[in-house]
Design brief:
The chain is mainly alpha-helical. The protein has helices at 7-13, 55-92, 97-126, 130-140, 148-162, 165-169.
């Protein structure tokens, strides 16, 4: 068990530990008696290092990321539904096969965009790719699906959060 002694008594009890009495050699430095004390010069400011990956900074991106995942998922499902209805209605009305091919191509493109939004939102939650998160937020602002009423506010919210300097600094890339 260790007995704690005030600093004034410690220098009297252990004079060999007093840093001011230690001889200095060439190339050596005199250690600070208290490494946890404030800087001695009055004109300098203390440097505060804080962790940018704190829980409060992590929580700030979770809401928009979850919103983007929900909006991207619903938009992807609605694009698939809309594409199927368009193709089926075109076939029933006897439209040109190029019309159905165009509807299928547009559906695949929109599902890929919404898949990218969902993937980038999961990367946003992990703080993996800043550029991907910003790109997904911008893509969510485009009214390309029936769920634009949800994706546009989520895109705005995520952009507002992502453009904060402390959030941008917390991403790995």
């Amino acid at each position: 068990m260790t007995d704690w002694v005030p600093a004034a008594q410690a220098s009297k009890l252990f004079p060999q530990a007093n840093a001011t009495e230690a001889p200095l050699r060439a190339g050596s430095f005199q250690p600070d008696p208290n490494p946890y004390s404030a800087p001695a010069s009055a004109g300098t400011q203390a440097v505060v290092a804080y962790n940018l990956r704190t829980p409060s900074a992590q929580i700030s991106v979770h809401g928009p990321a979850i919103g983007l995942i929900v909006a991207g998922s619903l938009a992807g499902v609605s694009c698939i539904f809309h594409g199927l209805v368009t193709v089926i209605a075109g076939v029933q009305r006897g439209r040109d096969p190029a019309y159905a091919a165009g509807a299928i191509a547009a559906t695949i493109l929109l599902v890929a965009i919404n898949g990218f939004i969902c993937f980038s939102a999961t990367q946003m939650m992990k703080r993996e790719s800043y550029r991907g998160a910003v790109a997904a937020s911008i893509l969510a602002l485009m009214p390309c699906s029936l769920c634009f009423w949800l994706s546009i506010p989520m895109g705005i919210w995520s952009l507002v959060i992502l453009l904060q300097p402390q959030v941008k600094a917390s991403f790995r890339s």
